[in-house]
Amino acid sequence: MPWLDITSKGSFWFLVFNFVLIIPSAYAINPPNILLIVSEDNGPELGCYGDPYAQTPHLDQLAAEGVRFENAFVPYSVCSPSRACFLTGKYPHQNGQIGLATHKFAMYQKKTPNFVTLLKQQGYLTGLIGKLHVNPESAFPFDYRAIPGANFNRRQPVTAYADKAGEFFKQAQKQQWFLSVNFPDAHLPFLKQANGRPAQPLSADDVKPMPWVGVDTPRLREQVANYYNCLARLDIGVGLLLEKLKQTGAAENTLVIYIGDHGAQFPRGKGSVYEGGLRVPLIVRWPGVAEPGLVRTELASTVDLLPTSLTAAGMSSPQDLPGRDLKPLLTAGPAKDWREYIFGFTTGSFPRNCYIQHSLRDARYKLISNPRPGTENLIADSYLDESHPHFVISGATAADQKTISPRTKAAFARWSTPPRYELYDLQQDPYEWNNLADDPDYAETKQRLIDALTALQRQTRDPFLAPENVEAFVKEQLAHRDMRYRKQKQFRWSYLDTFADWRSAR
């Protein structure tokens, strides 16, 4: 076939037209690798988010090379439900993982599409380093697994995560891959040092508690200092991991996503639907796509990670996913028709912490719905009542509570025995101290958020929209506070059948 004469006008535009067509097709056959980095129990207490005590240079550099989301949230601020949400792209009441996997909570169906099964269909090699903590684990058929335990004692050093990642990268040299690396920091226990890291740990005199905690005592400052030491160790691990990726030569064709799985384990944090529990760091680095150093303030959720990754892989998302593709937010400029609301939820995650709450927030206001008002919030008790069987060391002891302000005292009382609704103006009151739900000046805002929450529950077929389902769930949970079920191999929570039936009947 003779060469085309590009000096002729027609031939020139023929080549241009075909070149334009070739570019996207070449991109489609060479989609990026996907590296999902997940840390435990930490909100946006990082240097790149403006935290004054954080020692996180590697995560700060990752944010400088990618896009940092200022307002990112998880739908549920406890480990198993949060992880099921970003792995399946569905809310807890949609996938079924509404409590901890270690307490027999599970997804409704093993065949629920997820990161692993969907990307494997596209030819991706899939890997997991660190814990999964979602039931059934067989629903996530990773090709590669390493360091499968939680590693909360940090016997496996952060170097081990990078070493195992290097092992995975060698196996994946000839195909696209998806790797999720799950670090144990900053989960309790807050270890000051582990394997000599960090080399220069912070002490109680160096820090103050996060402003949403509302308690500041020497005892709690020590916990806070070691929380930041955990974050410093996490940052070292992320740096080692990203260096290992760089050494493969594949970094320029790798979409890197970093999140915390939920907020820190301090009062009104982990387990709650307050901002301290639901707000997390989210950083996306995608060379050639994500604009370096960009900060987006739109409301983002971890249910957005799967649609974003499927788009990157050249795939369509399942139609029933509530999340959004984040790609339009990875460059400067307005995003068309972006979401107005962010959803949050908790059941308490296991019987001794049982309490049901929903939340919905927009850019300014936050509604919390408590379907069983005036009843005891066992989650709050685990932070505020030393007689609680699972009282956490980072909670507020009786001695700590003698030092708190009247404002904090009122907030703790409201958290312990919630009213039907709570409403907060996050612009004026970002740490949710002043409940406006009974203020007539905010009645219209309150009703708008109630209506929006109800609409979302109906659209996503939330079983907890029905009062009878709420009562049945709570009754069964409270009847099992002895936790004998943990030793019963065939034990199965009834909601796995009744809620699935309720959802399918709608």
UniProtKB/TrEMBL annotation:
<comment type="similarity">
    <text>Belongs to the sulfatase family.</text>
</comment>
<dbReference type="InterPro" id="IPR017850">
    <property type="entry name" value="Alkaline_phosphatase_core_sf"/>
</dbReference>
<dbReference type="InterPro" id="IPR024607">
    <property type="entry name" value="Sulfatase_CS"/>
</dbReference>
<dbReference type="GO" id="GO:0004065">
    <property type="term" value="F:arylsulfatase activity"/>
</dbReference>
<keyword id="KW-0106">Calcium</keyword>
<keyword id="KW-0479">Metal-binding</keyword>
<dbReference type="InterPro" id="IPR000917">
    <property type="entry name" value="Sulfatase_N"/>
</dbReference>
<keyword id="KW-1133">Transmembrane helix</keyword>
<feature type="transmembrane region" description="Helical">
    <location>
        <begin position="12"/>
        <end position="29"/>
    </location>
</feature>
<dbReference type="GO" id="GO:0046872">
    <property type="term" value="F:metal ion binding"/>
</dbReference>
<dbReference type="Pfam" id="PF00884">
    <property type="entry name" value="Sulfatase"/>
</dbReference>
<protein>
    <submittedName>
        <fullName>Sulfatase</fullName>
    </submittedName>
</protein>
<keyword id="KW-0812">Transmembrane</keyword>
<keyword id="KW-0378">Hydrolase</keyword>
<feature type="domain" description="Sulfatase N-terminal">
    <location>
        <begin position="32"/>
        <end position="315"/>
    </location>
</feature>
<keyword id="KW-0472">Membrane</keyword>
<dbReference type="InterPro" id="IPR050738">
    <property type="entry name" value="Sulfatase"/>
</dbReference>
